[in-house]
Amino acid sequence: MKNKKTLIGTIAALLVVVLAVLLLTGVIPLGQKKAEPTPTATTAPTEAPTEAPTEAPTEAPTEAPTEAPTEAPTEAPTEAPTEAPTEAPKADITIALPNDATNEGRALLLLQAQGLIKLSDEAGITATVKDITENKLGLKFNEVEAAMVPNVLADADYAVINGNYALSAIQAGQTMNALLYENSESPYVNVVSVKEENKDTDMAKALAAAVLSQKVVDYFAETYKDGKAIATIDNPTDGYDATVDYAALAGKTIKVACTLDPHSFVLKVVKDILAAKDITLEIVVVDDYVTPNTMVDSGDVFANYFAHQPYQDDFNKQNGTKLVTIAGVHVEPMGLYAGKQADLSALGLGK
User: Fold this and answer.
1) Backbone φ and ψ of 322, nearest 5°
2) C-alpha pair distances (Å), 152 with each of 166, 182, 294
3) CATH number of 189-332
4) What is the pTM of this model?
5) Which one, of 109, 279, 301, 302, lies nearest residue 201 by Cα?
6) Residue 219 in 3-state DSSP?
7) What whole-number distance in Å separates Cα of residue 272 and Cα of residue 241?
8) Is 186:308 a contact under the CB 8 Å cutoff?
9) In 124-259, alpha helices (H)
10) Which CATH superfamily is domain 94-185+336-347 in?
11) Tally of CB atoms within 10 A around 217
12) Are strands 230-231 and 189-195 parallel, antiparallel or unpaired?
């Protein structure tokens, strides 16, 4: 009996499943048939094409062509040509300069005299590149130790070089082409200096007379016909001072510190003059701009001959020394020398 009930339940369940399938597949209709949703498929395509083509094509072509072509050509050509000509005249030119106080100022004054730069009114012989107030060509400067300027000449367009260092470079075989010099009124006269306490001694007077002799004037005239070193001796002596007791100086030695050409060579002329009075001149050659002054100040040498007067004045001021001049001998005109540029045309000064 129990198995019979189970069988009947199973058959009933199968009938329910079959009936459900037939209803879902539409084999057996369930109430009234609804066909209205079918046209809905035609409704969506009708509205979508109507709005989309109307707005998208209308706005995109209208804005893109109107703004882009109008603004780009208007602004770009207007600003670029206006600013470019301002920078164009500036040349990429480097000038090497000595970096010590008076020689850098001297070099800058030379450039100012040519109208290449303008220095502040307060700048004097110790001017530096920081004192430049006008630099129309946009010149660049390489500041190096004075003795080294000829060595960097090949890497610069131009270099402003002290006369003595230019002469030394020439003697060493370096080609040096001076394009312009200081004028003949240069205040940078090379001097013989001693300690203040020795300026009126017979030794100082004998040395000064020999340095300011006609033989020294002749040496400059014969040796430096190109004008790279010029004697500034207005009233040359015969080599001696009538007020000096040369007999008392006989057998003595005068030590003088100097740099090379032309200083050491001039002193060789002086040495012969003093030798005639049995006075020995010992020439001590150095290669910097400080040692000669410290040697005089310490008493290691009696005198020196290497620097111009403005340098000595500045040295005394900076170091508290009291070195005085007993003879102004010559000028070595500072010059602007050709480096990578063969002439002055790059500076607008012609050839």
Assistant:
1) -130, 75
2) 12, 21, 28
3) 3.40.190.10
4) 0.65
5) 302
6) helix
7) 15
8) no
9) 149-152, 163-171, 202-211, 214-223, 246-249
10) Periplasmic binding protein-like II (3.40.190.10)
11) 18
12) unpaired
- Reading the block at residue 66, the tokens are 């109107």
pLDDT digits (tens, 9 = 90+) for 70-114: 444 444 444 444 444 444 456 699 999 999 888 999 999 999 999
Contact 169, 349 (CB under 8 A): no
User: What does the pLDDT average to over 114-126?
Assistant: 92
Got the DSSP string for 262-276?
Answer: THHHHHHHHHHHHHT
Could you tell me if 38 and 44 are in contact, meaning their C-beta atoms sit under 8 angstroms apart?
no
In sequence order, the 6+-apart residues with CB closer than 8 A to the CB of 332 are 162, 163, 164, 166, 167, 188, 190, 228, 229, 230, 262
Q: What b/e sequence results for 297-328 when a residue is b if at least 16 CB atoms lie within 10 Å of its CB, and e otherwise?
A: beeebbbbbbbbbbbbebbbeeeebebbbbbb
**Structure token pair of residue 40:** 């809905």
**How far is Cα 314 from Cα 104, in angstroms, rounded to an integer?**
13
Distance CA 58, CA 151 (A): 74
List of residues 6+ apart from 335 with CB closer than 8 A: 160, 161, 163, 166, 178, 179, 180, 181, 182, 228
Q: What is the DSSP letter of 332?
A: -
More confidently predicted of 20 and 268: 268
Q: SS3 sequence, 69-84?
A: HHHHHHHHHHHHHHHH
Cα angle vertex 26, ends 24, 30, to 5°?
85
pLDDT of residue 335: 95
Q: In this predicted model, what pLDDT tens digit does every residue of 220-264 receive, in sequence order?
A: 999 988 788 899 999 999 999 999 999 999 999 999 999 988 999
User: For the chain, where do the domains classified as CATH 3.40.190.10 start and end?
Assistant: 94-185+336-347, 189-332
Structure tokens at 277: 């009075």
Q: What is the mean pLDDT of residues 52-58?
A: 42
- The residue to which tokens 């004054």 are assigned: 109
CB atoms within 10 A of CB 124: 14
